[in-house]
Structures are given as C-alpha cells and as structure tokens.
Amino acid sequence: MGISDPFYYTIEKGQVAVKIKGNPVVEQEGQFNYGSLLADDFIIKRAGHFRIEGFHNDQGDQLVFDTGYGLVSREQLISFVTDMRFEDDNFIVNFGDSASITLVGVHQNQISFDDIVVLS
User: Fold this and answer.
1) Where does the source fall among the domains of life (predicted)?
2) What values do phi and psi take at 104, rounded to 5?
3) Where in the chain are the domains?
4) Can you list the positions of beta strands (E) in 12-115?
5) Cα(49)–Cα(47) distance, integer angstroms
C-alpha cells in the first residue's frame, strides 16, 4: 500500500499515517486528526505527540497501533504507559517524554481497552 491508495497512507519523514475509513488524512505531529460519523480507525505508526479530535467509541472508533516495534498485545502496549489522565475535556496518555496521545473531548466511560488494537 502506498500514497496513492485511498484507504492508507504511509509515513513520510515527520508525518504520521492515519486511516479514516476511506478518507485518509496525513497530519504533522501535534495537529488534529478528524474522525467522521462512521467507525474510524486512527492508526498510530510511530512515536510522537498526537492530538486526535473526533474519537467516539460509541461509533466503533478504534486506536490502532501499527508501529513496527514488535508489539504483540494491548497488555504489552500498556506496559509502556507512564501516565494516563483526564484533564479538562481531554483524555491524555503519555508514553514517557517521547510520545503522547491526547483524545480531545473524551471523558471517562467514553474509551476502554476494547477500543485499542495492536498490530505490531
């Protein structure tokens, strides 16, 4: 799959690949990735600091970790979490100083470990 495929974008230097059910978006680190009214897969392809707006687990949205770092399970991914908290209207997960994910507008009971998929 490559940059011409309408359902998937690869990583270019300094960018993250995000797949949104037929509407791919490539965002620079730190910018928003917008979801749709359908079930969205927000694919995390590398370490960085990302803000995701439009995540709705009640619509079937998922965070998909496909980093190529050899992750094999949610439990293994969770072992790298250094901080997880709700702050203002956001859910923030830190993976040390080099990586974080902020889900904008996500409150308690609006995300669970069932919303996380680990591919690699």
Assistant:
1) Bacteria
2) -75, 130
3) 17-118
4) 15-18, 25-28, 32-34, 41-44, 49-53, 62-65, 83-87, 90-94, 100-104
5) 7
